[in-house]
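Long-time lurker, first post. I've been practising inverse folding by hand and with some scripts of my own, and I keep getting stuck on stretches where the structure tokens seem ambiguous. Below is the full token string for one chain I'm working on. Before anyone asks, I'm not after the true native sequence, just a reasonable design that respects the backbone. If someone could post their per-position residues I'd love to compare against what I wrote down in my notebook.
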């Protein structure tokens, strides 16, 4: 990650880009890859993608995606950023990272339909329960938080309804 955030509107063009080893160019290239080539099996097995020092498969990232993640994290003042292909993928990744069997997630009743399907199907199959709350009623949310609640899902604006909950009141 960068040592400090760039100033103002110049953050994207003055990001401290460091090209990948063996590819020195002033601007990031676009690397498209579903398959990554290695000289031999030993080289492939010695490559580690989790710390972003090597590339093993397009799904795990390329120099292009790693650079974009770094820039977005820097612009947002974050430590890291993870790019995913869709909002549903982001929701699933969050739920699967934070929830375990016996946990509960509170979901706004106006949540994105496919995400409700995830909650009612896959998460239930893993023993993760859910309850719906009225996102326009902070007290309804407060009343539903229980000992098994591990995740409160907030969605603004609500899918389809475009309702904007009072987020400061919801998090009090």
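-- Answer (accepted) --
I ran through it position by position. Result:
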């Amino acid at each position: 990650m960068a040592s400090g955030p760039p100033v103002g509107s110049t953050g994207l063009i003055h990001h401290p880009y460091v090209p990948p080893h063996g590819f020195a160019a002033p601007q990031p290239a676009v690397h498209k890859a579903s398959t990554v080539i290695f000289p031999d099996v030993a080289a492939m097995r010695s490559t580690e993608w989790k710390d972003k020092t090597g590339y093993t498969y397009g799904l795990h990232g390329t120099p292009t995606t790693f650079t974009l993640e770094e820039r977005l994290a820097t612009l947002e003042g974050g430590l890291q950023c993870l790019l995913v292909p869709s909002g549903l993928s982001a929701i699933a990744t969050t739920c699967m990272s934070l929830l375990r069997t016996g946990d509960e997630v509170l979901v706004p009743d106006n949540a994105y339909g496919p995400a409700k399907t995830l909650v009612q199907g896959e998460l239930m199959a893993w023993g993760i329960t859910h309850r719906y709350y009225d996102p326009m009623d902070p007290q309804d949310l407060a009343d539903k938080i229980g000992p098994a609640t591990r995740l409160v899902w907030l969605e603004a604006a609500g899918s389809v309804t475009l309702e904007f909950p009072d987020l400061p009141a919801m998090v009090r």
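A couple of notes from the structure itself: Helices lie at 41-45, 63-76, 87-98, 113-125, 138-144, 167-171. The chain has two domains: 8-76, 87-171. Happy to go over any region you disagree with.
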